[in-house]
């Protein structure tokens, strides 16, 4: 017998959890079902150890504010990313107040965001970036220093035994955070189930067929017992990480034509040495290596997972043809279609530096990886750090009218023309901006309901439909209120 539902969410990650929670708040009478192919939710990209957990707010990530050919710096993208993260914070604080989420410290903690650069060119760039951002309300409180004594107070591990005469500089935003998206995802799904949604694990979606009435028949198979079945859904969201491409291709929607993905894995060095963890209470980003994708920008991060503090450094790129950590070795081949072969070949032709970067990363042994860490932390010892395998990131490749094909490092929602199915492709900033991404999806896929949902959305996210940065007083008040609600301290 085919079960009929209003909303089917494919994938047990932060995107499905966020969309499901929004819809349950806006339309509590709808029947929502979630299918996850693994034994639990949040085991892929949303898992705490499969991503850097930064809480991307563009406070320290330099790739959101590149220097123009004329030397100017445009803060627009950095501001946009920060605006999106503020929506996430507001949404989470509302859910804490409603009792949907547990105590804030179980998923979000204070961790100043820093940028650290070396060499005259990068020091000059960071100084200019600081001068631009300190004027922006969402970046209020940003600090800059080239003084080793000041930077030593901010992050002692950066300065110990650093070479004399070396030029360096750092910025610091005390209001940064560390987010455990694994814990957050679990809590959101728990809240969904408490309000009547069904979350089914060990269930793999195998096919999607559009019916004449506009609904979707979704065929699936239980991974334990191999029992097959079909569910009929009025709306389908594919939040299946790297496998979103495969499932959208199976749906047959023309909007997915021309898309492909390039998988990049990652590893991190990790330490739980108490003496080291106690000396570093920050997330410190730097410039990316030449040819490296933005997701591979090196950073030394404070992490708090399940109440335990540790430090991570990386990432170090790895390669696997799988689109998910628990994917198939055939993923990179089975994605090929006549419509995306040309764009993918063009991307390969246009990005030799990326290939060179990946090859260089793959030959690094443990000692070489600790050598990379010593650029940040001169006193790093091999024996203090162990290597952990992070998740897979599926970077978007797509058609481009001018170049034929481009590699895109952001996230992108692909939506059918009638709005009955949508899926998310891409990686960073991903989880941190999940709320903003899903708000955009609501507008695209539910045009008949979105106006009626406005009051509820405004209650959940006070800045919904507006921007904070142009309104300094409102921005300051909003940041203060969410910080208090999430028990964050600068």
TrEMBL record:
Enzyme class: oxidoreductase
Cofactor: FAD
SUPFAM superfamilies: FAD/NAD(P)-binding domain (SSF51905)
Gene Ontology molecular function: L-malate dehydrogenase (quinone) activity
UniProt-listed Pfam families: Mqo
Source organism superkingdom: Bacteria
Record-listed E.C. numbers: 1.1.5.4
Protein family according to the UniProt entry: Belongs to the MQO family.
Protein name (record): Probable malate:quinone oxidoreductase
Organism for this UniProt entry: Microbacterium alkaliflavum
């Amino acid at each position: 017998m085919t079960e009929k539902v209003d909303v089917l969410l494919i994938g047990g990650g932060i995107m499905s959890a966020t969309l499901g929670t929004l819809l349950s708040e806006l339309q509590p009478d709808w029947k929502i079902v979630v299918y996850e192919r693994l034994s639990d939710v949040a085991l892929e990209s949303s898992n705490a150890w499969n991503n850097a957990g930064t809480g991307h707010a563009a406070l320290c990530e330099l790739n959101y504010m590149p220097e123009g050919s004329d030397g100017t710096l445009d803060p627009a993208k950095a501001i946009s990313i920060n605006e999106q993260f503020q929506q996430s914070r507001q949404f989470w604080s509302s859910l804490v107040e409603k009792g949907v989420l547990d105590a804030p410290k179980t998923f979000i903690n204070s961790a100043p965001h820093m940028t650290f650069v070396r060499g005259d060119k990068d020091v000059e760039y960071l100084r200019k970036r600081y001068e631009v951002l300190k004027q922006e309300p969402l970046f209020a409180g940003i600090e800059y220093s080239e003084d080793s004594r000041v930077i030593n107070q901010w992050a002692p591990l950066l300065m110990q035994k650093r070479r004399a005469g070396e030029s360096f500089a750092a910025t610091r935003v005390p209001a940064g955070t560390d987010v455990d998206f694994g814990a957050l995802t679990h809590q959101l799904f728990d809240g969904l189930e408490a309000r009547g949604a069904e979350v089914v694990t060990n269930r793999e979606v195998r096919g999607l067929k559009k019916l004449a009435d506009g609904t979707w028949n979704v065929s699936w198979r239980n991974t334990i017992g191999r029992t097959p079945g079909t569910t009929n859904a009025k709306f389908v969201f594919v939040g299946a990480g790297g496998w979103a491409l495969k499932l959208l291709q199976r749906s047959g929607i023309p909007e997915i034509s021309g898309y492909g993905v390039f998988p990049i894995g990652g590893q991190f060095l990790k330490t739980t040495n108490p003496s080291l963890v106690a000396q570093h209470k920050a997330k410190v980003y730097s410039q990316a290596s030449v040819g490296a994708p933005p997701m591979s920008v090196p950073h030394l991060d404070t992490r708090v997972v399940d109440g335990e503090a540790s430090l991570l450094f990386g990432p170090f790129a790895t390669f696997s043809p799988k689109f998910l950590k628990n994917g198939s070795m055939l993923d990179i081949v089975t994605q090929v279609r006549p419509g995306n072969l040309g764009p993918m070949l063009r991307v390969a032709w246009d990005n030799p530096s990326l290939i060179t970067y990946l090859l260089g990363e793959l030959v690094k042994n443990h000692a070489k990886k600790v050598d990379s860490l010593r650029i940040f932390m001169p006193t790093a010892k091999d024996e203090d750090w162990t290597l952990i395998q992070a998740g897979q990131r599926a970077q978007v490749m797509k058609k481009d009218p001018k170049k034929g094909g481009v590699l895109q490092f952001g996230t992108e929602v692909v939506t059918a023309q009638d709005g009955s199915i949508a899926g998310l492709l891409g990686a960073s900033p991903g989880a941190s901006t999940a709320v903003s991404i899903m708000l955009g999806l609501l507008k695209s896929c539910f045009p008949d309901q979105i106006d009626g949902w406005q009051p509820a959305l405004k209650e959940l996210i006070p800045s919904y439909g507006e921007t904070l940065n142009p309104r300094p007083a409102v921005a300051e008040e909003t940041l203060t209120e969410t910080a208090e609600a999430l028990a964050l301290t600068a």
